[in-house]
Amino acid sequence: MDRVDEAFTAVPRAGFLPSSERHRAAEDAPLPIGQGQTNSQPSTVSAMLRLLDVHPGHRVLDVGAGSGWTTALLAHLTGPDGEVVGVELEPRLARWGAANVAAAGRPWARIEPAIPGVVGLPAGAPYDRILVSAGATRMPATLLEQLGDPGRLVVPVDGRMTLVVRGDGRDAITTHGAYRFVPLR
């Protein structure tokens, strides 16, 4: 079992779903979590985490944290020497997601309400890894500014999963399949 599979075992999806959806936790489908948002399907989350390649001790930004599931998965991957900060634009989801992450027992991870009109959390930059669980129409320059060197950013851009690998001041950009997400705003 690899590290991503271990994270999925250690952080069950059911704890990050509304009670009315918990019986569907094993489905490989996006599930509604309220406020017009979804908990992404597990195969998509797995693919994104594998592209992100998180290591113990990394500082990670989780944009569009929603229910907190990806934030908690990332916290498992970073371990207690790392730090994970999730940001969520919908205030009710930010509170619920923060409570879910706290219940998961990973105090090195948290969710904060996103600042309207600001993508990411520039005050905490640079980050070793940035995960975006919302679709952008073009590469978000503000997130590139928050990415460390070396660093990795995974973001759906125009329906394509996009990976930015930064090293020695250069960005290598590749795409990895078609996906649908709620819009990044």
Throw out a few tags for this protein.
185 residues; alpha/beta; Rossmann fold; 7-stranded mixed β-sheet; two-stranded antiparallel ribbon; 26% helix; 31% strand; globular
Biggest sheet record = 7 strands, mixed
Q: What top-tier CATH class fits best? A: Alpha Beta
What is the SS-derived class?
alpha/beta
CATH superfamily: Vaccinia Virus protein VP39
Widest sheet, order of strands: 5-4-3-6-7-8-9
Net shape: globular
What's the end-to-end separation, in Å?
36 Å
CATH architecture name: 3-Layer(aba) Sandwich
Strand and helix order: HEEHEHEHEEHEEE
| Tally of DSSP helical segments | 5
Tell me how many strands there are.
9
Helix content: 25-40%
Q: How large a portion of the residues is in β-strands, by DSSP E?
A: 25-35%
What does this structure look like?
The termini are far apart. A seven-stranded mixed β-sheet has the order 5-4-3-6-7-8-9. Strands 1-2 form a two-stranded antiparallel sheet. Helices cover 26% and strands 31% of the residues. The chain is globular and about 45 Å long. It has one domain (34-136, 148-178): Vaccinia Virus protein VP39 (Rossmann fold, 3-Layer(aba) Sandwich), CATH 3.40.50.150. It has 185 residues and is an alpha/beta fold.
